[in-house]
# Entry
Amino acid sequence: MTQTSQKTTFGGETVADLMPQSPDLRGERLAALHKLFPDLFDGEGRIVEKELRALADPAYVPVGERYEFPWTGKTRSKREAFTPSRAALLYDPKRSVNPDKAGGNVIIEGENLEALKLLTAAYRERVKLIYIDPPYNTGKDFVYSDDYTEGREPYWEESGTTEDGVLIDTNTESNGRYHSDWLRMMHSRLLAARYLLRDDGFIVVSIDDAELANLMRLMDEVFDETNRVATLVWDKSRKNDAKFFSVGHEYMLIYARDKIFLKESNIILRADKEGVDEVKEVFDRLKNEHKNDFVKVRHRLIAHYATWDEDDDRQALSRFSKVDEKGPYRDDGNINWPGGGGPDYEILHPTTGKPCKLPISGWRYPTAERFWEMYRKGRIVFGPDDTTVPSVRTNLFDSKTQAIPSVLFSYAQIATQEFQKLFDSKKPFDNPKHFDDLRKLVDYLTDDGDVILDFFAGSGSTAHGVMLSNGKREFILVQFPERITDKTRTGVRALSMGYKKISDITIDRCRRVVDKLTIESGGLLPVDLGFKVYTLEKSNFPRVDFAPDPDKTEAENVEALRAYIREKENTFLRTWDRENILDEVLLKNGFMFDRSIAPAPEFTENQVEIVKDAYRTALVCLDESIAPETVDAFKGDKERIFSCLEAGLDTTKKWNLKHHLGDRLRPI
# Structure
């Protein structure tokens, strides 16, 4: 069942091969290293540390003299990231909304590291955008449990979130682990998330001043600093009670999965210029009204610009303050060669006939011929005489798109107001991210059909932004079931509204967005809207409780596990929930949430179903016994994959299916 390697799990070479778990990323990394460099391993398959160090750095320098980024718990966080998960996602139909229209839209309630691991088999290198707004390091609310399988009370007590059922501060600034604990929590999750990004994918992380420097170094290490794309600054609010400076901004760090791939694929990011259509409408009206008197048109247009607020996204257009028959334009563009050392050919001024003054770093265009070509196209403007450097002209209406600037304004107050409207003028959550900011980000970095993941979902702003974006995109949210307490006004308000956990707000906010958009469209939405809810639970298979005997060989433990499966799962098969088992099996075998399931009509003796998503197809049977006719139906089959319960096969049927299908037989 598990997808730990390319080899078939038939025969159960190891205990792990028989376990229902997510991909063993640690094992994959070691296997890939062994395949490339077998000389780095000893006869028992263990890495020889000194050989590995010699390969990585022939001039090895002691630890204390190297540039590195260490913190307490770093090794442990890496181990946590690559340890397989034996959890499962349990479908919750009662909290799902329009599940028949959900497609791949999913909200997962549970610990996010385990959830990321469970997504790996199906969504590895298939997510276009990861956006997260992780808990900022207040020292109070970011410690995540390493063992989700404990009972609910131990789960919270072990995480340090509560003590005797009361929320406590787990990591104050005076604690030496203040930064280390936060880094350890983030490190493991970023390592796991990296496997989900496509080659052309992006990850965006919101952060404040407290951990910006550490987060950037962490992201440089996990994603490579050469893949750093930008640091966006979001101006949000002013703090009049500040003692030193009024710090009202936050950041978004943006990294590409592979920036070289983006460049080689000639991928260029552009967004619509906010307000261009509006200015075009105003210009055309003024042009007709003043009968092409562009002096009057210019004055009226500048007056229109003045009606915009200082922080309005349209303000960038006000720089187009000159007007002629082509519309608003600016003619102060830099004609310098970027970086210096550009061409220094001679350009004669059209009026004086004398050579123009050279730009400081040389001409922007490689040759004089190219310069005059751009001049004839109206893209270059000369000064009054040869003592001035020509400049570049840009017409507002020539292009409706632009690169998003790195400094932006976020209307935090409007975000809160719009959020409260969704909740009948109440506020069950503090400081929600503005869904429209995220909508713009989604539109800029993704395309129709892409998957967007947020594993610190909070109030669900990312899903809100995705549902507002143009085109049909899919979202996956993960939110920890963090208890809401009565220690704050917002907490008291949320409890009075019936919410017990933050994830309750996440789910209900998305439900309200679906209802709002459906009503506003008159039921004529361009895309179907809905989502499915899953909760993180222990695996459905009793075998996950099996503990190998350290004094026995692997073969002996495998045989003991097979006996355990026969004993425990025979009873389990009589009481199971088929749909939950199928969900667990399909996700761990690489099928995405938007999969389709239909009966396979050619099989009459067993309930066999065809499962498809955009990437794979398989036949699945969860019957307690596989009929001989079903086995015979695979004679001569050269393509199909078949998964069935191992308990449903005797030795003969298993041998025959293996003979027919080879590695395409995937026992569960």
